[in-house]
Each structure stands twice: as structure tokens, then as C-alpha cells.
Amino acid sequence: MSASRSAILPADAARSRRDAFPLIIATLLAALLVSILIAVGLGPVPVSLANSWGILLHHLGLAHADSANLGWSPGQDVIVWQLRFPRVLLGGLVGAGLALVGASLQAVTLNKLADPHLLGVSSGATFGAIAVIVFTGNVVGSLTLPLAAFAGALASMAIVMTVALRQRRLNADRLLLAGVAVSFFVMAMANLMLYLGDHRSASSVVFWMLGGLGLARWNLLPIPALVLLIGFVVLVGLGRSLNALMAGEQTATALGIRVSALRLTVFVIASLMTGVMVAISGSIGFVGLMIPHIARQFVGTDHRRLLPASGLIGAIFLIWVDVAARSLIAPEDIPVGVGTAAIGGGFFIWLMRYR
Q1: What share of the chain is helix, strand, coil (3-state, %, to 5)?
Q2: pLDDT at 67 > cutoff 60
Q3: How many CB atoms lie within 10 A of CB 244?
């Protein structure tokens, strides 16, 4: 009786999580909206929630034209609409993107500690962005940095796959080890570029490498938003295949899944998303490692549910880390990457100690 009961319990737990999924997503969406509304009012110059809401409605054309004179100053209008609102939205986009990349890479590598940094994607994107900043400049306008970071991420991932490839198979363990090795090598080359390049550019790059959202502007948001949308649609569409791969390569192959092609697709999407996010926000670590583990506690391991939940939790998480970064030692900003590294380091230690 006890044996049959233990066999039923996992199925009951999975069914319970599946039934609760719409409520969880609705709660996360509400939490994300509330976080955005509150976060735009927090910082060195506080703005009340009522004024923040009024400014947003006014600029979105949902309030009367004269409502700007009813409760806030022109300075508050500029702070909320031109500075904080794009910054908060960019934080949500970057947090969601990195969390999606982390969850998908953990699936295709069969390793729960995989993230863009461990597989060399983030390092490659950093290398490409540094090469542009230090040596070439914006040769094709505002697209230069995202394109260079994407090219660097794609090249780094290609090197990782070439090193890991053995007898025309991508072994998960070899892939992870190759990613760590290539990541160290690429970052060494990036640091060498900083040393040999113009020192004035190098100082700005060092700050950018720590990660931050201070450069967020409205004209920068369409690119990460579009890339996030494309990546989300593709990865969720691969949800069933990722679930099968988590059961083992042999199981996935028996179900008719081309494992190498699946991994290649995920790696290209991960490179695209990471390259664009790193180009705009700098190197922000540990989001892709932490958030999927947190999301699994709420929605389980089915990637059709895990990926949306990871994206929403990642967006909320990075929004609030950025609020803390710009508030703790105001008016100075702490690089967001420092905050995520501090939280992520503690999470990593907890993961190793108790899981």
C-alpha cells in the first residue's frame, strides 16, 4: 500500500502544480506590474505613487492634457518618464531574458548549475562589446554594440561546441567543462584589450563590465524587447523537447528528437539573447543560475511552465535589485552586477550546502 501511495504522490504533486499554474502566472504578472509602478517612484529623488501613476497615464495619453499641472513638477516628470521608467522596463527585459537563457541552458546541458557565464556566452558577448568600445566605435550606429556582442557570444559558443564535440556528439559534461575553459580564455583576451586600448575608454568599460541599467533610454528598448519575444516564443515552443531531454539523451533520441539539432537551436537563441542583454546592460551574473531554481519550486520542471515563470520572476528580481542599487548609497549608483553577484554568491553557497 505504501509503495503504491508513493508512486501516486509525484503524479498528484505534478497535477496540483499544473492546476495552480494559471493562478501563479496571474500573481506574477500582478507582482510585476506593481513592482514597475512602485520602482519608478523610488530613488534619490522620491516620487509618490500617485504622482508616478499620474505621470505614466499622462504620457500614455490616458489622462487629461492639463493633468500634468495637478500634482507633480516638470523635474519629477522628466525623472519618472525619461529616466526611471525606461530603466525599470530595461531591468525587467534583461532579468527575464537572462532567466530564460539560464533555464534553457540548464536543460540542454543536463546540468542545473549552467548559466550564460559558465558556458562562455556572456564572456563572448563581453569580448565583442569591449572590442567595439575600445577600438572601432559605433560604426553602424546604435546597432553596433548589440551586433558586436551577439557576434562575440555566437563565436564563443561555436568554440565551446567545437571543443566539446566528440565523435559528432555534444556530451553535456564536456560541454560544461569546455564552456568554463573558453570563458576564462575569452575574458583574458578581453582584459588584454582593455590593457592595450585607450585608457579613457578602458575606465568606462570597467564600469560597464560590472553591469548597470543607467544608460536605459526609450530608443534602446525595442531591440531587447523584440529579441526577448522571439527567444521566448522559440524556447517555449521547444518545451516538450526540453522535457524529454531532461530524462536523458537516450530517452530523447528514442522519442525522435534530434538532440544535437535541439542543442544547436537553443545555443543560437541563448547567444542572441545574451549578446543583446549584455550589450545594453553590461555583464550581470547569477540571474540565469538562481531564478530557474526558484521557479521550479512553484511550477515544477515542465519547461512549458518553467520558462514563463522564470521570465517573470527574473524580471521582478532584477527590477528590485536595481532599486536597491540606486537607493542604498544615493545619489551614487551601485552597479547592478555587484548586487546580483552578492545575492547569487549566497544562493550558490546555499545550493551547494543544502541541495
Answers
A1: 80, 0, 20
A2: no
A3: 21
